[in-house]
């Protein structure tokens, strides 16, 4: 074994990173990818909850390409885009991409990461954005210290008590500079360049706030720590933007600029923007449960989207509510799911015996099933889908999402191809939860994933 952190074990021999494009046997891949770089290229532009390892996508694309099922130039679809892992990897392999997500920040991140930029324009945009910025932010501090107000700056819709001052005003100054540059920039890439800069501002926004590090749900620093929290906005933004430009400098030359990436701020339960029988392969990591109790994508995204992208508080507050199994979901619970999935039926029976959250589980899988139906519609007959799922607990009952996924897909007409179990060596996930919402009471949540590989119904 070498110390190459791009190493993967195929069969009994050690291979290097390029071999993921040469996979001919999915069972021969070490799917843990422990020690691999999951932040290479633009994957590392911005944190995001429960981010899928890019090597999963790379290996699956390589395998199906080698099987002659797909070829560069085909269309890859991700119904749960998140931070864009599938789109980025597909572009690196020469594919066109489409994706959906209900989270505005997910759309921002996916497009910023997946669309390559002309590097000369990117550096020029960076230079113009940073020119005189340090002086302007210093003036903001001086005005604030002098007790002045800032009537020329639109207040972001963030809640009181979540940001130090005058840092919040400084973030808004950077936001306004990006907006002005996007308006004045006389090239076809103005919107993409501005979006890319907003990603660095989003990350700076999160670091500037009183949000506790390592938490994706909204938890503030202790009051004493807030009093000592005095971040340098200019230094943080300059550092993030410079690092991101360097990552784009690695990514842009590695992809085909003639391919395309589209992301729709849309619900995959209807997938209205994706044409029937238009997709060659689907690779996706669905939410592990309703956003409120599992992974709070909306809570994580709220303030960064509001400050960096002028999204409204109401819109971002709604993200976790409209997700699969969310409190404002619109589909009626589908009782027949229990007939179609023995694993789900057994799970719901156990939850009911414990007076647990059986209704919540049924609502989640009703929504998930609607996405499966749309994937069956948009995929070309016989073509593959890979669902990367993690099992969680509800009311201390393990939810076998991988088995439920397989059985519900089979009800629609998908053919099961393979079930791949993988350990998660390092992934930002809740490893334990408090199922009864009792302080100090935790239960096992997620420590492994399964890749459920199916093929779409034949016509």
UniProtKB/TrEMBL annotation:
<dbReference type="GO" id="GO:0003677">
    <property type="term" value="F:DNA binding"/>
</dbReference>
<keyword id="KW-0489">Methyltransferase</keyword>
<dbReference type="InterPro" id="IPR017985">
    <property type="entry name" value="MeTrfase_CN4_CS"/>
</dbReference>
<dbReference type="InterPro" id="IPR029063">
    <property type="entry name" value="SAM-dependent_MTases_sf"/>
</dbReference>
<keyword id="KW-0680">Restriction system</keyword>
<comment type="similarity">
    <text>Belongs to the N(4)/N(6)-methyltransferase family. N(4) subfamily.</text>
</comment>
<keyword id="KW-0949">S-adenosyl-L-methionine</keyword>
<dbReference type="InterPro" id="IPR002941">
    <property type="entry name" value="DNA_methylase_N4/N6"/>
</dbReference>
<keyword id="KW-0808">Transferase</keyword>
<keyword id="KW-0238">DNA-binding</keyword>
<dbReference type="GO" id="GO:0032259">
    <property type="term" value="P:methylation"/>
</dbReference>
<dbReference type="GO" id="GO:0009307">
    <property type="term" value="P:DNA restriction-modification system"/>
</dbReference>
<dbReference type="Pfam" id="PF01555">
    <property type="entry name" value="N6_N4_Mtase"/>
</dbReference>
<protein>
    <recommendedName>
        <fullName>site-specific DNA-methyltransferase (cytosine-N(4)-specific)</fullName>
        <ecNumber>2.1.1.113</ecNumber>
    </recommendedName>
</protein>
<dbReference type="GO" id="GO:0015667">
    <property type="term" value="F:site-specific DNA-methyltransferase (cytosine-N4-specific) activity"/>
</dbReference>
<feature type="domain" description="DNA methylase N-4/N-6">
    <location>
        <begin position="31"/>
        <end position="96"/>
    </location>
</feature>
